[in-house]
TrEMBL record:
Subcellular location: Plastid, Chloroplast
InterPro entries, alphabetized: NAD(P)-bd_dom_sf, SDR_fam
Protein name according to UniProt: 3-oxoacyl-[acyl-carrier-protein] reductase
Keyword Nucleus belongs to the record: no
PANTHER family xref list: SHORT-CHAIN DEHYDROGENASE REDUCTASE (PTHR42820), SHORT-CHAIN DEHYDROGENASE REDUCTASE 3B (PTHR42820:SF16)
Homology family: Belongs to the short-chain dehydrogenases/reductases (SDR) family.
Keywords, sorted A to Z: Chloroplast, Plastid
Assigned GO CC terms: chloroplast
Keyword Lyase: no
Amino acid sequence: MPLYILPRTSIDFVQEKCMERLNHSLEGKVVIITGGASGIGAESVRLFTKHGARVVIVDVQDKLGQELAVSVGEDKASYYHCDVTNETEVENAVKFTVDKHGRLDVLFSNAGVIEPFVSILDLNLDVLDRTISVNLRGAAAFIKHAARAMVEKGTRGSIICTTSVAAEIAGTAPHGYTASKHGLLGLIRSASGGLGKYGIRVNGVAPFGVATPLVCNSFKIEPNVVEENTLASANLKGIVLKASHVAETALFLASDESAYVSGQNLAVDGGYTVVKS
């Protein structure tokens, strides 16, 4: 079989076209990112807008959210205050997005909380209720109202939720957080079955330990300590997990590059759950 070698100019052309496609993978798409003012959410806002999306940043951190919208460009991003535990506010956030942009293509339900580690013998049920209210009920509310908007407009949308390695295995996170993420994974799988007939995909993205403000502030530890702990227990060596890695995975699930992927929980954990489960 003869070997065909492309001229250098042809190689350059192919590379240029591939990069052009990659850099515009969300061109024209309208996206809601909850918990979008910091951490994984903020990284995703920057990345998604870079790839052509118009993003509505949903959060309760008003100053951070507004500053982020300005920094990426108010023609690309806007901020909307919303407490995900309040269904009326969730419905209004979706309505704001559709009224502003005419449609909704992608929901990245990323808002979450994590409580301190305690023994199951000392579990505070009020704290448990709060964790489940944000991590599970809040995601359910956004999935409900985002999917309604997508169905009404006939949009073959993508819904992504930030789960965790704690959605698959126990012992890596506090009890309430683990329970909420297990529940969220069940919701993702159930919703993917219910929304498939409308052409709407539902997936999870499951990171290992990431040094986000949420984690660092909740456990009162410095980012470098989180990264050192993750690296020490990780299966994949030689790379430190960053929020940007999670954002890049969410970008794949948001784009048409994953057009036939639904009901999955895509781990960004360097193989940790496979080896430890």
